[in-house]
Amino acid sequence: MRLLTQADVALVLKVSVKTISRLRQAGELPYIPGKPVLIREADLEKYVERKLTCRARTAGHISTRTSTASTKSDGPSMDDLAAARQAHRIFSKLKRSSRTLSS
């Protein structure tokens, strides 16, 4: 079990530490309280998978916000696929680095 700080998670997701704090407070990202606050790598992976799955599901829906007709998408957008690839590369790198640290 690998533990990450909020700053580590913020770097991985390319967001601010404040955003990670908001996700924790909203109950979207489980954490271990303390100083520093720690987040399990497995919980981060689950969060990313959940977000990618939600985005992929909603990518094909027609927006009801606009009054003009929208076209329906055939699946995940290129941004979703790029984000999934990026997340996969990051987690692979994290796993490789954790293996070298434990050896």
Automatic annotation (TrEMBL):
One protein family per Pfam: HTH_17
InterPro entries attached to this UniProt entry: DNA-bd_dom_put_sf, HTH_17
Domain Helix-turn-helix: 3-51
Protein name: Helix-turn-helix domain-containing protein
Organism placement in taxonomy: Bacteria, Pseudomonadati, Pseudomonadota, Alphaproteobacteria, Sphingomonadales
